[in-house]
Amino acid sequence: MPASPRGLLRPGRLARWTGRVPDRHSAPGPRPPARDRLAPPSGSTDEPRPAERPTRAARGRTAHPWISPLAPATLLGSLVAVLALTFRRDDFHTAPGTLSRWYALAWVLFAAAAWTVRRLGARQAAVFVLAGSAAVAATGLLGPPRTSTDAYRYAWDGRVQAAGISPYDHAPEDPALAPLRDRWLFPTDSACHGPDRAPVRPAPEPPAPGAHPRTDPAPDHAPNAPSNTREAPDHTRGTSGPAESQCTRLNRPAVHTIYPPVAEGYFLLVHRSAPSGSTLLPLQTGGALLSVATTAVLLAAARRRPDPRLATARAALWAWCPAVPVEAVNNAHVDALGVLLTVAGLVAVPRRRALGGVLLGAAIAAKLLPAVTLPGALSGILATNPKTPKAPENAGSPASPSARLRRAAAAAVRPASAIVLPAAAVVALGYLPYVLLSRSSVLGYLTGYVAEEGYETGSTAADDKNRYALLRLLHPAPESWALPVVAAVLLVVVAWVLLRGDPGRPWRGALVVTGTAFLLMTPGYPWYALLVVALVALDGRWEWLGLPLAGVAQYVTARAVDEGAWVGTLGYAVAGAAVMAGWAVRALRAASAPPPPGPHAEAPGDAATPGSPPGSPATRPRRRRVPR
Question: What does the alpha-carbon distance between residue 537 and residue 544 come to, in Å, rounded to a whole number?
Fold first, then answer.
């Protein structure tokens, strides 16, 4: 009976075992029985080695293989159910305390699910993370935006651009845009009695045939009305039909848009691709697609990491985080687009600087906040101890630290330009069409927004909105000196990243700079922290996840208590303490860890002749000779 192909000894294996190269015309003989088979040489990987005794942790992972996927599946299903119930309720205005408890439950389930997925293999974890990302994101589609009205402004900007008008030229309440007012964005009469409605002047109606509208302005008071009784101005006097009150769901209808050009292009794209009669569901669907795409980029980057299993599990820190379905999907914040471009840019920077710079520039042109990640993209660019050997210097004249720093700065110009210049070019090219087509400033309400949020020196709004909350623990009124202190601290952190950062992991430096800026400025909107969540998923330093929780405490939970500013301060203080605790634990682990082996360390049991170079006959494993 002829031997099966599995029983044939491959010529390559025969040559490695015996040292003889078989003739290419000779057919290999049948494989000998197991009792007569020669043992492979030590160190060979062709045959399996005797199984070592598994550790207790390994036995726990392999004793019941169905337990490992069952735990994350159960926790993930519970998380999806809790999020679905959260979005079916509208508690932001009526019961913010109840909404905070639902958020807390979702975060607990998220933490447990993200911890259990670490027990899975890389391939199994990738399936769980991607499928869970789609399920978690889908929960945000179950209701209208619950905690923000920014998506209505996105829809309006897309509507205005589709009409061929620059969104930077007119405020939403401008009568010149009255023909573009859709009823779901500008409701009337009884629909104006809900929360988050801003009154606007009603759209003027065309005069009736034969009517002669008044040329004199309508008085603010009726002729016989008391002086303290003020009636609404009648903007439709002389037109057909009675006047009706009109409002808008847009926030800040009296100011121009603030969003950068890539975001405006995204709004136009969603408006063009949305079916007729749709409202905010296309924007929410776009947010879901962006969040799942970010998960896919994280999983693709994990395959090139030294530990793909752990890096794959870290992607769940973004994919399953409750902040993603709340802010990126349900509220449809354009920050999701900036996060996707930022993650893709930071992943591309170590291998292709120019591509990384282009993606980071697009992220900045979508949402200005990703600009704080640029120092991370330049991590280690000013390092004074490069790995390449230098020519020996003359004895007695060692280079000073300033000389080494100057050399490092000169050497850093080219790689820094490869990142910064493409980023700046993308931002400039993005703004160029709007500059040419707009009559007003393309910065829109940016400067007014900075002042409104209290980030100007001496601004009184900083106290009302609890900005610089942690600095207020040092001084009750930091408005006059907060900005110089924040700038100085950030400058020190950026310098540390440029000098000591890891160029192979630019997201680590980006996380440090971004997280420090959040702790110093304590923004009050939790959707800004989506960028922090994505950087945590890249780097794995989970202690920074306290920042989005602090944003929720300041934006949602503070509404449930009187004088709730202390809630946001407490949230950011706990987040800062968690960051310091995580840093201390990692430093202690690094100090107590054994030193890594040398680059040419010998395996245990291998004897080498002292002084023999690696790969020499003295250090090469010996083959066993088989007698003929």
Answer: 10
